[in-house]
Amino acid sequence: MAYKLTYFPVEALAEPTRFLFSYGGIDFEDVRFERENWPQIKPNMPFGQVPILEHDGKVAHQSVAMARYAAKQVKLVGGNDWEDLEIDAIVDTINDLRQKIALYSYETDEAIKEARKEPLFKETIPYYLERLDGIVKANDGHLALGKLTWADLYFVALLKYLNFMCGTDIIADYSNLVALKNTVLEIPAIKAWVEKRPKSDL
């Protein structure tokens, strides 16, 4: 039975799992529902959230856990527990950055949002990206273990969403991260997925 991945009609938090399944040639049903249908769908979702992943009558939630599972299926994990820890630490760091950006992006009070803008763009984002860029430089062009892992695909798959929330290309000045993005997007299976996936802004 093929996997069934359900999410809004965007890339965002479901895209890392889509990247990973595509990388491994694993068939999955990419279900995208319109936002106006969310009130009817939400009560049936675990903890009222998406994305969800279904397989063999089972339902899983939490986007990072789903991506980690997909990574195991396509053999983009570490060779031992410590290597997995290194990868997980990078993925968690990326999500720390995502949450800080989201705190700004989704703020509805314009005064509060404006107050958060300068610290985010002048301090927080550079703090994270400088360090991630350095990690890529020290790891032969990758985010962990000196080779391609699911951390690389996770970051690149999420990047469009991060850029959307910020309204700019946040890695433009970080050459190692730009090179990593290009490396991932040139993987034939990823390139094919990006070309055929539904169009969206985030």
Describe the overall structure.
57% of the residues lie in helices and 9% in strands. The chain is of the alpha+beta class and 202 residues long. The chain has two domains: 3-75 and 189-196, Glutaredoxin (3-Layer(aba) Sandwich), CATH 3.40.30; 81-186, Glutathione S-transferase Yfyf (Class Pi), Chain A, domain 2. A four-stranded mixed β-sheet has the order 2-1-3-4, with helices on one face. A hairpin with a 2-residue loop joins strand 3 and strand 4. Helix 1 packs across helix 8 (188-196), helix 4 (81-105) runs parallel beside helix 6 and helix 6 (150-166) crosses helix 7 (175-185). The longest helix has 29 residues, at 110-138.
Question: What is the CATH architecture term of the largest domain?
Answer: Up-down Bundle
Q: How many DSSP E strands?
A: 4
Going by helix content, strand content and strand pairing, the class is alpha+beta
Main sheet record: 4 strands, mixed
Helix content: 55-70%
**Unreliable segments of 5+ consecutive residues:** none
Strand order of the largest sheet: 2-1-3-4
Q: Would you list the SSEs in sequence order as H and E?
A: EHEHEEHHHHHH
Shape: globular
The average pLDDT score comes to 97
State Rg.
17 Å
Classified by CATH, the class of the largest domain is Mainly Alpha
Total of domains? 2
Short description:
Helix content is 57%, strand content 9%. It has 202 residues and is α+β, with helices and mostly antiparallel strands.
List keywords for this structure.
8 helices, alpha+beta, four-stranded mixed β-sheet, single chain
